[in-house]
Amino acid sequence: MSKPALMRHIPQIAHVDVNCFYASAERAFNPSLEGRPVVVLSNNDGCAVTRSPEAKALGIPMGEPWFKLAPRAKEWGLVALSSNYELYGDISARVMELLGRYSAWLEVYSIDEAFLGVKGTPAELLTLGRAMKNAVRRNVGVPVCVGIAATKTLAKLANKWAKNNPAFAGVCHWDSIPAANRESLMSRLSVIEIWGVATRLTKRLNVMGIFSILDLSRADPVMIRDRFSVVMMRTVLELQGTPCIPMEEERIGRDQLIFSRSFATPITTAAGIRQVMSVYGQQASARLAKHGLQAKVLTAFAGTSHFNPNDTSYPSACVPLPMPTADPVILTKASHALLPLINEGVRYARAGIMVTDLRPTGNQAPLALFENPHEERRVGTLLEDVTRRYGQGSIGLGHAGIRGGPDWTMKRDMLSPRYTTHWDELPLVKAA
Amino acid sequence: MGVIVGPRVIDAGVSLLSVLISPVPVAAGYPSPAQDYFDGRIDLNEHLIKDITSTYVVRVSGDSMERAGISDGDELIVNRALEPKDGCVVIAVLDGELTIKRLRITPAGVVLQAENPAYPDIRVPALSDLVIWGVATRCLHHV
Questions:
Q1: Which pLDDT band, with edges at 50, 70 and 90, does A203 fall under?
Q2: CATH code of the domain containing A122
């Protein structure tokens, strides 16, 4: 299939995400879970937040409380695991590091998904998608699917299609699919399936005769903007193939918060990365506080551009925090675990931090036990730094105290080993 | 409960994995003749791990690899990105377990060998019938 020469270098977006991420990360180190129904439970072993395909096939709904599943677990052969955030954080960092080798433009969208800027002919894009999928599976050990399209919204849709239709073998390039097939898919999927359309908006769309994704893609963007919002208009334009959702530097997901960006000018020193990490540590702190959350695990990462193949470096550090916290000092200090891994002189094109294992902030008073004057001094310099960068009132002393959350002796009865971050918990290989 | 501060990730453990090769201490005030040659400590990560993203550390349980110098309790550095070749020590998935064996690829088929006569060989028709989890590159043997 030959495309006009003009098509060759139109940039496209690849959306890559890990299939059933938490369950897949567990399976990477415990192959006996392969083919068995697996659920990973939320904090305090509350409810199922990840289901393997086998668990879905049993009809277990997302968010099903564990106490309802437990009585039937044995009969089903169901394996339930507590959330092992340190493992997931490290595996996520590895996936992102690897993906970063395929594009200078990488947006870590959540713990298990990323957008990448890609260019090439349809055949080259398909080859690239397959190469990424195979590399993540082989080198890191988790399965991913890849969707490639002109816009983020379509790339996510292509990815969903690749996941649900085995014929794609995990990689779907939207523009390579005949238009009739794409329209058929879009007409079968409800608008609620599309990225960015909230449940409550579905009814209003339905009233206007917009039921399927195809209906929405054919709507008048201006009318949609007037009746809904600019956000919904962007979704319509994106479905029509016009990119209008820009790269984002910050995102709060279901159970993680990510700050990541590519730099306009590469950073070449640990001191430079340290500064970036400090900014992210403070941003994360402010954002956690805003959402009334505390984090227990932090992952800091950096990466070079793949345009310098002779000078590559993708350091990352996954740091368990001493207790759930939104404290800027502790978060920033934890992110500095990355610094010893930074090679001076190497041109880092991006860096970021991700905080995971989030839980609501407790009401307990600060624990004096963990305070020390050294840290208090650093709070001062951090506050100055934040104020200088973000203006007065962007951060307050109220967050400086360390609060132990109500659930800081959290129930995690079914926790797997922290295979990749603790020397005492390494995976065992049988020599027998 | 003790407070854990700082990195615990394995690949971040520069302090754990570095060896001091400092020049001989000299009296204060006199520059060491070796000072100009002191280029920092040996970083084992740099020498033992080629590709940090695809490298994992695992621990051996059992004595079936004794003859290869791999003993019960030793740690192995495993690179998942390497192509398994004849003669490699590999981590294979056998009956749902990560298992360490010597990989032999022969015209007659693929054999997973133990390095201990007490354990039988496992024959497999083709490499594609096997799940190779990774290739061991180093053994951190406890002496």
A1: confident
A2: 3.30.70.270
Is the domain of A210 the same as that of A311?
A: no
Task: Report d(CA A215, CA A183) in Å as an integer.
Answer: 10
3-state secondary structure of A285: helix
Evaluate if residue A105 carries a pLDDT over 60.
yes
| Local confidence band at A220 (pLDDT 50, 70, 90 cut-offs) | very high
Check if the beta carbon of residue A162 is closer than 8 Å to that of residue A16. Answer: no
Name, of A8-17, A193-202, A305-314, the range with top average pLDDT.
Answer: A8-17
Q: Is the per-residue pLDDT at A373 higher than 60? A: no
Place of tokens 């951190």: B140
- Please report residues of A whose CB lies closer than 8 A to that of B113: none
Q: Are residues A141 and A187 in the same domain?
A: no
The reply to whether residue B60 touches residue A429, judged by beta carbons under 8 angstroms, is yes
Q: Which residues of A touch B117 (CB under 8 A)?
A: none
Distance from CA of A337 to the nearest CA of B (A): 5
Mean per-residue pLDDT of chain A: 83
| A273 touches A338 (CB < 8 A) | yes
Q: Residues 256-315, chain A: which have Cβ within 8 Å of B?
A: 314-315
CATH, residue A339: 3.30.1490.100
Q: Tell me: pLDDT of A127 over 50.
A: yes
| Same-domain pairing of A311 and A358 | yes
Domains of chain B: 10-48 (no CATH), 52-140 (2.10.109.10)
Contact A428 B7 (CB under 8 A): no
Task: Tally the domains of chain A.
Answer: 3
Range of A182's domain? 178-248
Asked if A122 and A176 touch (Cβ cutoff 8 Å), the reply is yes
Residue A421: inside a domain? no
Instruction: Please state, as a whole number, how many other Cβ atoms lie within 10 Å of the Cβ of residue A124.
Output: 13
- Would you say residue A413 lies in a domain? no
* Amino acid occupying residue A263: F
Q: Are A369 and A360 a contacting pair, CB within 8 Å?
A: no
Domain membership flag for residue A414:
no
Burial group, residue A373, by CB count within 10 angstroms (0-12, 13-18, 19+) = exposed
- Centre a 10 Å sphere on the Cβ of residue A166 and count the other Cβ atoms it contains: 8
Chosen domain end from A232, A248, A264: A248
Same domain for A225 and A302, yes or no, is no
Of B55 and A369, the structure prediction assigns the larger pLDDT to B55
* Residue A429 domain flag: no
CA A294/CA A297 separation, integer angstroms: 10
On whether both A340 and A358 belong to a single domain, the answer is yes
Chain A residues near residue B97 by CB distance under 8 angstroms: 31-32, 430
> A175-190, pLDDT tens digit by residue?
999 999 999 999 999 9
Cα→Cα distances A358→A8, A401, B130, Å? 43, 18, 39
Which band of pLDDT confidence, cut at 50, 70 and 90, is reported for residue B26?
very low
B53 to A340: CB separation less than 8 angstroms, yes or no: no
Q: Which amino acid is at A261?
A: R
Among the listed residues A315, A293, A291, A290, the one whose alpha carbon sits nearest the alpha carbon of residue A304: A315
